[in-house]
Amino acid sequence: MNGWLLTAGGIAAATTLIHVTAGGRSIVRPLLASEVAGEPKRTLHVVWHMVTADLLLSSIALLALAFASAPSTLLTLFIAAHYLAYAAVFLTVTLAADWPRPLLQLPQWMLLPVAVLTFVGTR
Fold first, then answer.
1. What Rg value do the Cα atoms of the chain yield, rounded?
2. What is d(CA 48, CA 71) in angstroms, rounded to the nearest whole number?
3. CA-CA distances (angstroms) from residue 121 to 17, 35, 37, 75, 108?
4. Domain range spanning residue 39?
5. Are 5 and 66 in contact (CB under 8 A)?
6. Which of 9, 55, 105, 111 sits a CA distance of 20 to 30 A from 79?
7. CA distances for 64 relative to 29, 42, 51, 60, angstroms
8. DSSP classification of residue 24
């Protein structure tokens, strides 16, 4: 068992759960109730569900890789890069926002530990 990948997979799974519950309540419902035009509204709704699927599948992959006798280095590095990209995009957008305490308002940049733990877990 690879403890690094198990921890990364656990954090990723928790993130998926938070995304579905809190994101559905604080992002999707207000979006769907907004006056945004139909096409952009539905596109954003689809993107939210795509991210949900992405987070779920990568969580499952990380947990499976944690218990694999010979985890795929290529797949593990891909998932690490994937989470690093998520964190970088959110960090960039968050820091560009003109809000008080922006890092707390868009905390998705905290996916960075999943990237680091996954990278370390490649051995």
1. 16
2. 29
3. 23, 45, 44, 12, 22
4. 3-120
5. yes
6. 105
7. 33, 33, 20, 6
8. I
How many domains are there within the chain? 1
In angstroms, rounded to a whole number, what is the distance separating the alpha carbons of residues 78 and 61? 11
pLDDT tens-digit map of 42-82:
999 999 999 999 999 999 999 999 999 999 999 999 999 99
Q: Tokens for 56?
A: 């779920």
pTM of the model: 0.88
User: For tokens 């990209």, what's the residue?
Assistant: 85
Give yes or no for residue 97 having a pLDDT over 90: no
